[in-house]
Amino acid sequence: MKKQFLLGVVLLLVICLLGVASAQEVTLKVWLMKQAEVELIKAQEEALAEFQKLYPDINVEFTVFPYNEYRDKLLIAAAAGNPPDVSVIDQIWNPEFAAAGFVIPLDDYVTQSPNVKKENYFSGAWESAVFQEKLYGIPFDVGVWALNYYNKDIFRNAGLDPEKPPVTWDEFYEMGSKMTSEQQWGTALYVGSGDAVQCIVDALIFSNGGSVLNQDFRKCTLDQPPAIEALKYFKKLQSINPSGEVARTEEDSFQLFTAGKIGMFWYGEWGQDTINARAPEMDWALANFPRPAEGKSIGTFGGWNMVIYQQATQKDAAWKFIEFWTSKEINEKVSSLTPANIEAAQAFLNQKRKFPEVVFQQLSTALYRPIFPRYPDLAEIQRNATTNILLDQKSVEEALKDATKEIDALLDEYYANH
Amino acid sequence: MHNKKEWASGYLFILPSLILLIILVFYPLFMTFIYSFYDMSLVSNRYLGWEAYQKLFQNPKLYLIFKNSLTWTILVVFFQCLLGLGSALILQQTFVGNAFLRGLVILPWVMPGVIAGMAWRLIYDPHLGLLNHYLQILGIVDRPLTWLSSPNMALYAVIFTAIWKGFPFSTIMYLAGLQGVPSELYEAAEIDGANEVKQFFHITIPSMKPIITVTLLLTFIWTFNYFELVYVMTGGGPAESSHIFPTYIYDLAFKRFRFGDASRFAVVDFLFLLIFSLFYVRTTFKSEENL
């Protein structure tokens, strides 16, 4: 009797232990950017519930921060050895996070994955996550700098056909000149202190067949003719633009556009909501980024990639989350920018944006910014060169030659020690 | 025995703040010194030793920022002192609306720096801003001036805003100081036939010397390390021409992740302020002893 009782207890214990082992729940820490839109937050919650249904043993814990705090919080957590398992990061941080060993290569996961395939995503966004031939992130959302927003009324007043926006650099300049008077201008350039100006300048260089760094990112190519021509064109636009551009940010220029002071304005596709909110009466339209007569219209990518951290305790669960979050059905719903998944992007643009074909076309050909772990330093050198050119402190050739020298020194110093 | 016990309880009382000070001030300070000998960023961590400082002193940026910081601090402190003293003298008089005016004067100082910076960015804007608008109406300029986007003017434009933003602090301090000057002194001076100018230089200023000394020291250190206005209004631009120590250190550390470089600039900033404060306090106390 006693023996049987004991046996029973042991059996019960074994069952309990087995039960625990099989239903071992894991907690997955995910960091995302804070969203302002209520609908989007709701969509994220719904998507999360769906994920939970698919993987009942993975417990997802969301942490969100607004953009301004996001990077600092993430860096502190990563440097302190307590990062999340998964997060989104800005494309331009990806090489740095990879070089610092914060995030892991995902190539093996991709080879085994049925859903995550290179061709499902915009190629420029995918390439932005490749560092030294390994893939360190999966694109989540994208944006392209820049599209040409234009004010149809200003076109009409200048005697231009609002259905025929400029296609080439020369057309852009000439139409801009016709709009320029004491109180109104063709466009408003901007430098400011963010990265938007680099995106614009890079896009001009890309469109002119040039690049910032060479193929293996070891040498600067800003002193080559395509870049020199691009910057000369950028400088030329100064005459159809209100003065003060070097202190102006892209948001300041945006205000000039919505205030009806400028006819054309270069910005990403996500600016549409802002125009509708600020100037609902405005009769505006969207065209591709102007190209040189012999060139192709190529924009610069912005956007966010999803990464898995070196110190993540739940790497496999993390990958499952990325697969889910970047899949067509989900990506389309949970992203505030254009989804990086091409099919999702098409659905998203058709539903939420005007001129979806123009935006889609621009996204399909866009390129990423230089891949270099010290990108912020490189960007600062570029910005100073652009500023010096606009302020007439240096000629275009001289400024770009100096910048090339500085960037080469930066590259050499980095690669000598790494 | 009794004495020892008192000592112990004394230490016990300061212990919490001491621990906080060590964790929040001395430890970071110490680590900044250590980091300043490294090439440190997210992607590198290399000991450089004194070579790091050799490189720093060859860096023309250091001299530009030092020059900017000094120009910025001296002009701002000088004009804040002048304006503060002037406004205090006016507000000390009795007239209708004095209390209202006192409240009004203090407004810039209580306004958050970031908001003041953003407001002034708009005021200076060449095409949307008020300043150029009125300058053009008055016929002083015929084209809008680009205050914040020309390297020759940007820093001075921010200095002007900083003077406006900070002078009420000096006003309050000097107003308090003025009220502490014994009125018998003025009465005696009047009897002796001293006019108001003489009274000001021989009574008001000497009696207020301690408060002026402290106010100058405080505003000097605050201004030297004042971050928001420059950061919001120019971001150190155009082409890094208006950076002062705090904004440049922030850029290096948090925009470019160059923690080593940032630490070296911070060490220079710290040592300069330390030497200045020691020197300043010593000379002023010495001259007070001589009085």
List low-pLDDT spans of chain A. Answer: 18-22
Strand-residue proportion of chain A: 5-15%
Annotated CATH architecture of the largest domain in chain A? 3-Layer(aba) Sandwich
Alpha carbon gyration radius of chain B: 24 Å
The two chains with the largest interface, and their residue counts, are: A-B, 37 and 30 residues
Strands side by side in the biggest sheet of chain B: 1-2
Name the CATH architecture of chain B: Orthogonal Bundle
List the helices and strands and how they pair.
The complex is a heterodimer of chains A (418) and B (291).
Chain A: H1 2-22, E1 26-33, H2 38-54, E2 58-65, H3 67-79, E3 86-90, H4 94-99, H5 107-112, H6 123-127, E4 130-131, E5 134-135, E6 138-145, E7 147-151, H7 152-157, H8 169-179, E8 185-187, H9 196-207, H10 225-236, H11 250-258, E9 262-267, H12 271-278, E10 284-287, E11 300-308, H13 315-325, H14 328-334, E12 338-339, H15 342-352, H16 356-365, H17 375-390, H18 396-417
Parallel strand pairs in A: 1-2, 1-3, 8-9
Antiparallel strand pairs in A: 3-11, 4-5, 6-11, 6-12, 7-9, 7-10
Helix pairs in contact in A: 9-10, 14-15, 15-16, 17-18
Chain B: H1 2-35, E1 38-40, E2 45-47, H2 50-58, H3 60-92, H4 98-110, H5 113-124, H6 130-137, H7 154-179, H8 183-191, H9 196-207, H10 209-224, H11 228-233, H12 245-255, H13 259-290
Helix pairs in contact in B: 3-7, 3-10, 4-7, 7-10, 10-13, 12-13
Word description of this protein:
The complex is a heterodimer of chains A (418) and B (291). Chain A is α/β, with parallel strands linked by helices and 418 residues long. Chain A has two domains: 27-142 and 302-365, D-Maltodextrin-Binding Protein, domain 2; 147-298 and 374-417, Periplasmic binding protein-like II (D-Maltodextrin-Binding Protein, domain 2, 3-Layer(aba) Sandwich), CATH 3.40.190.10. Chain A contains 18 helices and twelve strands. Chain A has helices spanning 2-22, 38-54, 67-79, 94-99, 107-112, 123-127, 152-157, 169-179, 196-207, 225-236, 250-258, 271-278, 315-325, 328-334, 342-352, 356-365, 375-390, 396-417; strands at 26-33, 58-65, 86-90, 130-131, 134-135, 138-145, 147-151, 185-187, 262-267, 284-287, 300-308, 338-339. In chain A, strand 4 and strand 5 form a beta hairpin. The radius of gyration of chain A is 25 Å and the shape is globular. The termini of chain A are far apart. The relative contact order of chain A is 0.16. Chain B has 291 residues and is mainly alpha-helical. Chain B has one domain (59-290): MetI-like (MetI-like fold, Orthogonal Bundle), CATH 1.10.3720. Chain B is 76% helix and 2% strand. Chain B is built from 13 helices and two strands; from the N terminus they run αββαααααααααααα. Chain B has a two-stranded antiparallel sheet with strand order 1-2. In chain B, strand 1 (38-40) and strand 2 (45-47) form a beta hairpin. The radius of gyration of chain B is 24 Å and the shape is globular. The two termini of chain B are 42 Å apart. The A-B interface holds A 72, 75, 79, 96-97, 99-100, 102, 191-193, 242-248, 252, 255-256, 259, 261, 373-374, 376-377, 380, 383-384, 387-388, 391, 393, 414, 417-418 and B 39, 41-44, 46, 125-128, 143-144, 146, 148-151, 154, 234-240, 254-258.
